[in-house]
Amino acid sequence: MTLASIIVPAFNVQATMRQTLEALLAQTYAHFEVIIVDDGSTDTTPQIAAEFANDPRVRVIRQNNRGLAGARNSGIAAAKGSFIGFCDADDIWLPHKLARHVAHLQANPKVGISYAGSAFIDNQGVLTGQAQRPRLKGIGASHIFKRNPIGNGSAPVIRRAVLDEIAYQPRIETQRPWYFDETFRQSEDIECWLRIALTTHWDFEGLPGLLTQYRINTTGLSAATDRQLAAWDRMVAKLTPLNPSFFAVNTKPARAYQLRYLSRRAVSALDASRARSLSLAWLAESRAPLIEEPGKSLVTLAASAALTTCGGDALRRLMKLAQTISPKATAL
User: 204 - beta bridge partners?
Assistant: First the structure.
């Protein structure tokens, strides 16, 4: 049977990592290893990792802090599996997730990246009722650039051959190749997915269902929007030389989608001024989100307006009503 590797980047995650690892070790697919990459933790994360290392399926790598991309790179370099999945140490895989992705990849030799939707959980691990329900088929580079159907770093399972194809050795690195760009502390996922789409022949394809529980940390949501936008813009500047004509056509609508996403984060943080400025910014950048996804776009604009004019209580009532009318309406 094909061996799969699950890489768990871990930095100061003592509150959530045990639940993450228990879920991974409960996978119904039997032939897998879990590689915990302790990325310079200063809490009890190393002790928790050591407890799980008693399981022969678990290995632990310890390193000085290199960020999420650096932890994933170390895990990939150590992985023995033909298929590689990632699960952040505050997220949860449903028991049949790995089995479904392995079967999907084995049955579809042209698919290099298999993913599925994710249900959102809050800081306490309670389902919020929101979810990422991505497009599953017919995925091109423009879809990845604009809407990132993979959704989050705990959603995909990827062929090792895909990662080997995009590996590179930067001059500053002496230990192992880079697959994710370690100079990014945000937007490292979309940078990698888009680089795969632009430079390889592998297909992206999703599976129906919500196979990951993705934790939404509301702390600092609004403050992070500036940093995330700056990282996204730097990602575009880095990748544009790979295909200038692609970026000439797609950057403005993709940036509008990114600004719309950040406006929703500001709404979630109840930051009215930031939500309003980001809403105006994405409308000025491109009307593509409004034309292509009118429902989600109008809900975003309505939420921003309600927050600006009436405050957080009115917004919560609006979002509750939208959830009642259409459960998908409030999905990010």
Answer: 113
Which H helix or E strand runs over 234? helix 224-239
Best CA proximity match to 27, nearest among 8, 44, 50, 14: 8
Residues in the chain predicted with pLDDT less than 50, given as ranges, are 220-221, 325-332
Q: Global pTM?
A: 0.91
| Class of 4-215 in CATH | alpha beta
How far, CA to CA in Å, does 83 sit from each of 45, 49, 164? 26, 22, 12
- Which pLDDT value is given to residue 172? 84
Q: Which two tokens stand for residue 267?
A: 């709404």
pLDDT at 310: 75
244/247 Cα distance (integer angstroms)? 5
Q: Hey, is 227 helix, strand or coil?
A: helix
pLDDT on residue 326: 46
Whole-angstrom distance, CA of residue 126 vs CA of residue 290: 31
SS3 assignment, position 248: helix
Do residues 32 and 5 lie in contact, with contact meaning Cβ atoms separated by under 8 Å? yes
Q: Over the stretch 301-325, which tens digit does the pLDDT of each residue have?
A: 988 888 888 776 666 666 665 555 4
Kindly state the DSSP code that residue 93 receives in the 8-state scheme: E
In Å, what is the CA distance from 191 to each residue of 24, 53, 116, 145, 161? 26, 32, 19, 9, 18
Which pair of structure tokens corresponds to residue 95?
């028991």
pLDDT at 25: 98
Which residues, including other chains, have CB under 8 Å from residue 14's CB and lie 6 or more apart? 41, 43, 44, 45, 48
Please answer whether residues 285 and 252 qualify as being in contact, where contact means their C-beta atoms are separated by less than 8 angstroms.
Answer: yes
The per-residue pLDDT for 323 is 56
* 24, 98, 99, 205, 250 from 4: Cα distances, Å: 12, 8, 10, 18, 35
CATH 3.90.550.10 residue ranges for the chain: 4-215
